[in-house]
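INFO batch 0412 | record 1 of 1 | parsing
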Amino acid sequence: MQASHSGNDKRTRKPRRSLARLFRDNAGNTMAIVGAALIPITAMIGSGLDMSRAYMAKSRLQSACDAASLAARRVMKNDDLSDNVTQTGEDFFNFNFPQGLYETEEFEPNITKPETGLIRIDAETRIPTTVMKLFGFSTLPLEVNCEASLNFVNTDVVLVLDVTGSMQESVDDVRKMDALQEAVLALYDELSPVQAQLTAQGLRLRYGVVPYSSTVNVGRLLTAVDEDYIRSSTPYQSRVANYTKPYYAENTPTSAPGSWEINNKSRTAAQCRSWVTASATNGGGPAPASTTRTSYRGSEEVSGYNASTNWGWPGASDTSGNELSCRRWRIVTTTTYTTRYIFKDWTYREATLDTSEFKRAGGTINLATDNTGSVPVSATYNLQELAENVSGVNTTSQTWNGCIEERNTDSTITTASGYGIPSTAFDLNINDVPDSDATRWRPMLPKAIYTRARGSLPRDTGIALNPDNAAFWPCPHEARRLQEWDRDDLEDYVEALEPLGGTYHDIGMIWGARLISTGGVFGDACETFNGMPCNRHVIFMTDGQQTAYCENTYTAYGLESNDMRVTGDGTCPDQLARHEQRFKMICNATKNMGVSVWVVAFDTTLNANLTSCADNASQAFVSEDQEDLIQKFREIGNQIGALRLTK
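INFO prediction complete | emitting tokens
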């Protein structure tokens, strides 16, 4: 029994040990395991390669979409999805992602305008696979979309417009002023859809306008805020009348009561007649001492000789014979004199006039126009005093037109001054609020202005400014502060602009800066409004280069050869360069306030001063004709918003 049992155990243990050894030895299973894993590994690697390739293609496709939407939005005008807009979008898309790139299928981007100011592009295509097609995936889909808009928020725009005499000239048979008017309206039309959108959102788009030549018309804007911003007493380059030549005015003669004068010496009738009718005699004097006039007549009632009354009259000493007593009626008239003074000569010099009447609307100042009349006291009179105090002088009146002489400045500013504005250059200080005559503005008074030899010294000779010829004292159309305009009002305003005067870029930019500032005398512009930020822009348009008049023209700086506020020297040695330096300084100060400056040179060149005034070279334009000027204003309107991708 035992032996039999032992043999059976040996036979069963042997196969079991063989299986165990096979289980423990896996060297022979490697090929089988690898072969089984090749299929999923290949699928994983192939899909990774294809997906990576698809990812790169989609990234490139998305970049092309973004670029195309931005380009299309930039050229969109009047919120119109025109053929030019769609073509520009397609061109940019195809440039950045050419058809067939990465072997993608041909496609056409779909360009739409889903809402105001927004461009949307959708694009779909497919990219072929390399490995994944072995598993039934021959292509992978690619789909992108993008949106671009101009990020308009509260926007303030001040137009600084050159309205000088050269704007009367024509380019291609179109008056330059007419071209400018059309360009301003084109800007308005470009931004009109945005204006409506902002208004609907409780935000705003506003415009201010500064027409400039050699001065600006801002006086009424200033007095509307505070009358004290205008000087009440203002010095002008004028003339004074010297009433120092004595003149003796006769007072009304008075006659003492008449009396008989008797000549008791007997006379013949002929002798008596001759004596009675003797000529009057003068006495006293000379003036201003009293003078007398003694005259004779026959009697109190009768002027001529009467023998019965005058020769041997009853009761006379001698009443008989041929020689009788003679009498006559004597009248003594006395004339007294008042000493007065008449005109001697003129002195041409600075004279201070009372300009307080100009602070009220319609207020006028009377000025003498000649040197007639007389005065009781020897004195020198300015033209205003002459009109008020000298009897018999002829006068004229002037109502203020609103144009200003700038407030005090620093005559030491030169091309070496850099960009820092001196504390005494009040005209260049944008936000300084007047608190003294040095910081107040002066009303222009052309009828009081007389030119003389250069320098500040008084002279014996001078010439009237010719106040009837506005070319010598140009006064542009009144400026407008920031406001929301409708198109009709803006059209009426720009159509009233007329060209006159010379080109003082500095004065135009000074007041453009004041109107776009958040501080100063107006403080109209904003940092935020209704919880949203404000963008601020100045568009500076000129058709010429900076000019500077030394003499014979009345500007924002008076008669520069005599006032010498900018030049510091009546000979004006480097006057033009000084004004150009001031223009550079005020441009720099404007940009330092966070204002974006655009410059358009119309029918002229962009010199370094104009180009550097703009924020950058891309914001400085040259326009050669009306069509181009309109186009440039449209481009500016199109770019005033912050162009951005919204999706």
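INFO post-check: Residues 1-8, 32-38 have pLDDT under 50 and may be disordered.
INFO record closed
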